[in-house]
Specification:
alpha/beta; single chain; 11 strands; about 250 residues; 6 helices
Amino acid sequence: MPDTSDVIRLSAVADIHCNRSNRDALQALFERASDESDILLLCGDLADYGLVEEAHILADVLKAAVRIPMVGVLGNHDYENGNQNEIRQILTDVGVALLDGEILEISGVGFAGVKGFCGGFGRHQLEAWGERVIKRFVQEAKEEACKLELALARLGELPRIAVLHYSPIRATVEGEFPEIIPFLGSSRLEEPINWFEATAVFHGHAHNGFPEGSTMRNIPVYNVALAALRKAFPDRPPFRLVEIPRPIP
C-alpha cells in the first residue's frame, strides 16, 4: 500500500441491505475497504428489512472483516420494523460509531452524522402548509437538518465530514424516476453543510442516482449507494474511496 501519511483515506458505502444471501459478498467488500482505507463510512440501509437477525449477520461480517474505525448512520430500511434501537446496539457492540446528531473525531477529522429525511429540493421542496400531517412531515426534515447543524457547529475548527443517508442535493439523485426524487432527500440538509463549510458529504438512498455532485458552495457530495457505485464504476470494488488532507497537528 502506498505511503499516505499526508492524507486520510475514507472508504464509504451505503444501502448494503445485509441478509443471509449477501453476507459473503459483503465480507469480501469490507475486507478490501479495510485494506485500502483508514476509516470506513456506512451511510445507512445497513439491514435489508430492519430485522434484528440481519443486524447480527452484519455485525459478524464487520467483526471478521474490518480492522479500521467505522462511522455510520442508520437508513430508512433500518427503521422498517421498529428495531432501530436494537440494530444500533448490535452494531455499536462491534465497533461501529453510529451517529444521530452526535459527533466523533478520528485522526483530527470531525464526523457529524444524521439519517436526514426527504421533502424535495430547491424551490420545489415541500413547505409546511395545509394538513397537519404535511406539517409533521416537513417538521421531521427540519429537525434532521437542525441536528446536523448543531453537530457540525460542535466540531469547531476540525475538518468536517457529514455522514447522511438522505441526499442534501438534487444532483446525486438524478437518474431516479422523477416521481420519487422528492423522497430521496432535502435541500434543508444542504444549508448547514454550506454554512459550516464541510470538507465532504457522503450519503446513500439513491440506488439509481449519480455518484457525485456538489453543493451551491462547491462542497463535494458523494452518493455511495452500493447499486449506484456498481453501475457507475463496474470495474471497481463497490465502495467509494476518497482522500482528504491529513490535518496538521
